[in-house]
């Protein structure tokens, strides 16, 4: 329901109510009781006028709401498909959510503005309120809904059961339903390459990593990064600080400053803010941001950026939905799917390291190289992968250790 | 310096204003809110409609309202008792979290075919947990005269960190791929739905019982009388022999228990598991609810209604109008200010005396 | 930079917003007004400073705007607490929640906006000294301003007549009123000063400390500053100790983390809050001590007979 359908009551009534209310207050300044009563009655009358109009409008809108979903279902072929996006943070986070939104815009371009219309809600917390927001999206007629954060998983699964004709796509999760699937990116593939660049650029041999929660996906990233750095420079050390938050810029800044104080001259992060890049810039150190290109925030500090591209996937799925061929297979995208890219490599990284990285990247894209190829030892000396073996998806999904080169122990 | 508006105390509080003041405050809040909408370029009347009326148009909407009101009323009831006794418990949020944690821990012990009576243990655990957490504040206030505002507030941060640790280590779902959350609770440990077609669960029944209990305590029981006297006239209460220490413990433990109950209801109802963030600030919003309710138990219901409506309206306004989620906080703060202005008129009379006396006369 | 030097430097940075806000709150509480809305005012100051700096391209404008909005909000609080003689705790909480919501609201278009370039921090020649220079002399000028404010506030409160009047109003407003002092006016002035300090502290957070705006970025520092004033028994030097203790613990726990200490990070993060509670309890134990130090009329509305 948009504001053109709404023909509410006039400004006159609104202002009379306001004036009566304010008059009533000021009436206390020196007026007799009878006038006070008159003002009170006028105020009440306006209140009833207000509420009366609202009730009328309320009744009128109900049939409109009921008609809409039916219309949307019928006119699928003619009308553009309505697609909804649920974001956990604001788009302006210059990080995780921004990349999803860029992906959304890319997909609209690819599929065509006449075939799809999108809406999004940002800053949706991963609490019980998320269910209400997603349900509202369904009620607004969206037929394909992308939930971009892990915490929406259970609510989406519940709603998937209730609304079998709506398709649900959940990022970074693992629960599915006949009309719900999951999608994710193998971040570790890009992390290995980024690690190579960091290993080549560092002079102090200490690299700082600001991480949110010790979940397997983050640990995959840390470990792949370390392995990549060690392949260039076996003497590096990676120090990790856990912020226990996806989006907490002050904590990120504190963590970055602490790591710099501990000797790190290259930083990277898995949190969803640009604070680490910003701190690196202020301190004159180097940074390889993750999620998006943060050149605007760190023009001198950024030596490369590991950028997530959700666009190709969104375009593909939206096209499938438009064509009625929606595929519910869960997807864990590779670098070769165009989901990751290492951009903006500056000359602070030695040219031979960049060349080596390109060689490895070529092999990776062809499927000839896996970042987690044995022998791999954890940082307490235990061997976790035998020589020549390649880690399978199951072990990746349950990773809970640091590889050799990372300082400390995984929390818990 | 004399301001142009003089303030006189009334001989007797104005009864008409006392009755009508909350309504007046709400109208004022809406009027100011409309002005805010207009200032940022949204059509004010439509925006107010989306904010206040649209959430109520469906049964499901009323159910959501109930889901939001439940924790607010429970926390606010406890805070009403505390604030009446002049004990400024700001840490309801922390007590809510600890109650949810304790109740959640017990809930996780349920086996799949446990009977529904298991819920009683869960509820008891949360009440005890919340009360014990509040007792830390009470003990420090009693033994060390520590300011309860600051202690209870610091404990909120501690509680949040405890929850975060708990869902990451001891209570983490082993099948959860390492994500910080507990397993989903078994059916025996979740609250059944009260109104089909909505999310409104039987926590609502607990609210009604608590409401009745608190009303009974505050107006009919001796301890309630003691609480009111302690707040209004501390010297009189000490002359009458009412134990100050009993007041502190009673008020804080009761408030902690109710907040803990609110927490477990939230976790066993809409959420269904323990996650790092279970409350969007209910403990703090309940403070406003308690004041808007004028520290009367019965008043918490309409006050929570308005606050919950603001929550829902703010959310709806996000998708309809593109306004940010922060709008809810703005409205809630405005409501508090308008209530205070309107309330002050009950006890004081304002008189315009002009600028003649602007410069203060020499003593 | 060695770890120790970095720890000292980051502690100074982290403690400065706490110190600035606490000094302002100290003066206001000395006059008998308890302003719980510090968090909201700090957030408003942070966003206004950010908007000021982004729009005008000058940091000075940002700081000035933040000071003005701090004073404005403090006076807004004064309308309720001093003017309407409403309950000070409720009014303060209202300001806190309102400020948080309003700051988030007006900050939406500015998330991700880029600040103008800033010159390097640090005192000119002193920051080149090997260890001491890096540790103590390479901060932004506000850090040094906050340190200078400690003796300034002390001097004002204890060595000037105006300060004596402020303390008198806080201890016994009725006597001050009887002597002819305008208690509401003095309280408003004290609140205005506290608003300016809080505004400066908020601006420091969003312009210098984390040069970013995100809603809720003050992350509880306003409440901590309130606690610090009680912690420091309303004396400037002790408040300084408290602020640096808290800031130091916060940075220390991060350093411990990255050094690989295997206590769960949440427990390390709890340390500053638990330390505050413990010290608060220890300080408040002696009721006579508290009565000696706390302004007697703190938190009570002044209603002349």
Automatic annotation (TrEMBL), chain A:
Coiled-coil residue spans: none
Entry keyword annotation includes Signal: yes
Origin: domain of life: Bacteria
Record carries keyword Signal: yes
One family name in Pfam for this protein: Bmp
Residue ranges of every copy of the ABC transporter substrate-binding protein PnrA-like domain listed in the record: 82-364
GO cellular component, one term: plasma membrane
Keyword entries, A-Z: Signal
Entries under PANTHER family matching the protein: ABC TRANSPORTER SUBSTRATE-BINDING PROTEIN
Name this protein carries in UniProt: BMP family ABC transporter substrate-binding protein
Species this chain originates from: Parasutterella muris
């Amino acid at each position: 329901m948009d504001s053109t359908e709404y023909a509410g009551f006039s400004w006159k009534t609104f202002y009379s109510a306001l004036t009566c209310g304010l008059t009533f207050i000021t009436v206390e300044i020196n007026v007799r009781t009878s006038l006070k009563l008159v003002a009170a009655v006028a105020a009440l009358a306006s209140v009833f006028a207000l509420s009366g109009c609202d009730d009328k409008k309320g009744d009128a809108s109900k049939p409109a709401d009921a008609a809409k979903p039916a219309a949307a279902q019928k006119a699928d072929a003619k009308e553009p498909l309505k697609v909804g996006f649920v974001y956990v943070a604001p788009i302006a986070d210059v990080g995780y959510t921004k990349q999803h939104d860029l992906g959304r815009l890319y997909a609209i371009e690819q599929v065509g503005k006449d075939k799809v219309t999108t809406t999004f809600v940002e800053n949706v917390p991963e609490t019980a309120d998320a269910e209400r927001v997603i349900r509202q999206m369904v009620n607004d007629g969206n037929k394909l809904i992308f939930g971009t954060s892990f915490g929406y998983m259970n609510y989406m699964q519940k709603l998937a059961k209730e609304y079998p004709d709506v398709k649900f796509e959940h990022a970074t999760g693992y629960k599915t339903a006949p009309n719900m699937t999951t999608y994710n990116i193998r971040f570790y593939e890009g992390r290995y390459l980024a690690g190579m660049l960091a290993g080549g650029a560092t002079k102090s041999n200490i690299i700082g990593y600001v991480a949110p929660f010790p979940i397997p996906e983050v640990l995959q990233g840390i470990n792949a990064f370390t392995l990549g750095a060690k392949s260039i420079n076996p003497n590096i050390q990676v120090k990790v600080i856990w912020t226990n938050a996806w989006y907490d810029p002050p904590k990120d800044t504190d963590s970055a400053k602490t790591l710099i104080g501990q000797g790190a001259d290259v930083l990277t992060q898995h949190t969803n803010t640009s604070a680490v890049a910003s701190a690196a810039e202020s301190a004159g150190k180097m940074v390889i941001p993750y999620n998006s290109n943060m050149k605007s925030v760190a023009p001198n500090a950024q030596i490369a950026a590991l950028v997530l591209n959700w666009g190709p996937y969104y375009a593909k799925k939206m096209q499938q939905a438009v064509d009625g061929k929606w595929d519910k297979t869960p997807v864990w995208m590779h670098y070769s799917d165009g989901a990751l890219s290492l951009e903006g490599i500056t000359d602070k990284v030695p040219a031979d390291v960049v060349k080596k990285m390109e060689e490895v990247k070529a092999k990776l894209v062809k499927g000839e190289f896996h970042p987690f190829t044995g022998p791999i030892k954890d940082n307490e000396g235990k061997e976790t992968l035998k020589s020549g073996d390649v880690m399978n998806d199951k072990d990746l999904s349950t990773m809970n250790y640091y590889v050799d080169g990372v300082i400390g122990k995984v929390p818990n | 310096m004399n301001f142009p508006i003089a303030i006189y105390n009334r001989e007797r509080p104005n009864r008409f204003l006392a009755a009508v003041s909350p309504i007046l405050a709400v109208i004022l809040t809406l009027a100011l809110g409309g002005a805010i909408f207009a200032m940022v370029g949204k059509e004010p009347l439509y925006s107010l409609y989306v904010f206040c009326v649209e959430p109520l148009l469906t049964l499901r909407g009323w159910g959501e309202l109930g889901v939001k009101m439940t924790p607010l009323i429970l926390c606010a009831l406890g805070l009403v008792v505390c604030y009446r006794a002049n004990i400024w418990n700001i840490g309801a949020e922390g007590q809510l979290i600890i109650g949810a944690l304790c109740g959640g821990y017990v809930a996780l012990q349920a086996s799949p075919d446990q009977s529904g009576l298991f819920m009683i243990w869960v509820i008891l655990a949360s009440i005890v947990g919340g009360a014990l957490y509040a007792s830390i504040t009470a003990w420090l206030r009693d033994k060390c005269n520590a300011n309860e505002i600051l202690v209870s507030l610091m404990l909120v941060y501690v509680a949040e960190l405890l929850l975060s640790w708990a869902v990451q280590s001891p209570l983490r779902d082993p099948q959860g791929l390492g994500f910080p959350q507990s397993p989903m609770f078994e059916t025996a440990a979740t609250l059944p739905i009260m109104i089909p077609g909505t999310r409104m669960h039987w926590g609502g029944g607990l609210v009604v019982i608590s409401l009745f209990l608190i009303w009974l305590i505050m107006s009919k029981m001796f301890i309630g009388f003691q609480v009111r006297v302690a707040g209004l006239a501390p010297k009189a209460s000490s002359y009458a022999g009412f134990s100050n220490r009993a007041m502190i413990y009673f008020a804080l433990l009761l408030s902690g228990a109710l907040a803990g109950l609110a927490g477990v209801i939230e976790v066993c109802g809409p959420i269904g598991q323990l996650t790092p963030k279970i409350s969007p600030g209910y403990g703090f919003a309940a403070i406003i609810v308690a004041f808007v309710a004028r520290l009367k138990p019965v008043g918490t219901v309409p006050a929570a209604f308005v606050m919950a409506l603001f929550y829902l309206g703010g959310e709806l306004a996000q998708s309809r109008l593109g306004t940010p989620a922060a709008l809810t906080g703005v409205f809630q703060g405005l409501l508090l200010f308008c209530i205070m202005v309107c309330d002050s008129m009950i006890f004081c009379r304002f008189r315009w005396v002009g600028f003649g006396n602007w410069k203060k006369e020499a003593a | 930079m060695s770890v120790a030097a970095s720890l000292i430097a980051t502690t100074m940075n982290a403690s400065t917003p706490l110190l600035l806000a606490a000094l302002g709150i100290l003066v206001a509480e000395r006059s008998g007004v308890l302003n719980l809305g510090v968090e909201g005012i700090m957030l408003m100051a942070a966003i206004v400073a950010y908007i000021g700096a982004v729009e005008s391209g000058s940091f000075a404008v940002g700081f000035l705007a933040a000071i003005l909005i701090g004073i404005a909000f403090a006076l807004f609080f004064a309308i309720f607490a001093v003017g309407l003689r409403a309950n000070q705790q409720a009014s303060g909480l209202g300001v806190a929640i309102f400020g948080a919501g309003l700051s988030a609201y007006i900050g939406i278009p500015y998330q991700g906006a880029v600040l103008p370039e800033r010159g390097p921090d640090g005192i000119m020649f002193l920051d080149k000294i090997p260890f001491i220079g890096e540790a103590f002399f390479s901060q932004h000028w506000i850090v040094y301003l906050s340190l200078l404010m400690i003796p300034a506030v002390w001097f004002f409160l204890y060595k000037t007549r105006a300060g004596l009047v402020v303390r008198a109003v806080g201890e016994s407003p009725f006597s001050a009123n009887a002597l002819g002092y305008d208690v509401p006016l003095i309280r408003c002035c004290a609140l205005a000063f506290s608003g300016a300090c809080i505004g400066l502290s908020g601006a420091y957070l969003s312009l210098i400390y984390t040069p970013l705006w995100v809603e809720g970025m003050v992350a509880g520092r306003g409440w901590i500053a309130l606690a610090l004033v009680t912690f420091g028994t309303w004396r400037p030097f002790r408040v300084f100790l408290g602020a640096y203790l808290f800031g130091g613990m916060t940075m220390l726990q991060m350093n411990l983390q990255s050094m690989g200490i295997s206590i769960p990070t949440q427990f390390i993060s709890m340390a500053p809050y638990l330390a505050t509670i413990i010290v608060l309890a220890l300080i408040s134990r002696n009721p006579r001590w508290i009565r000696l130090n706390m302004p007697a009329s703190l938190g009570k509305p002044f209603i002349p007979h």
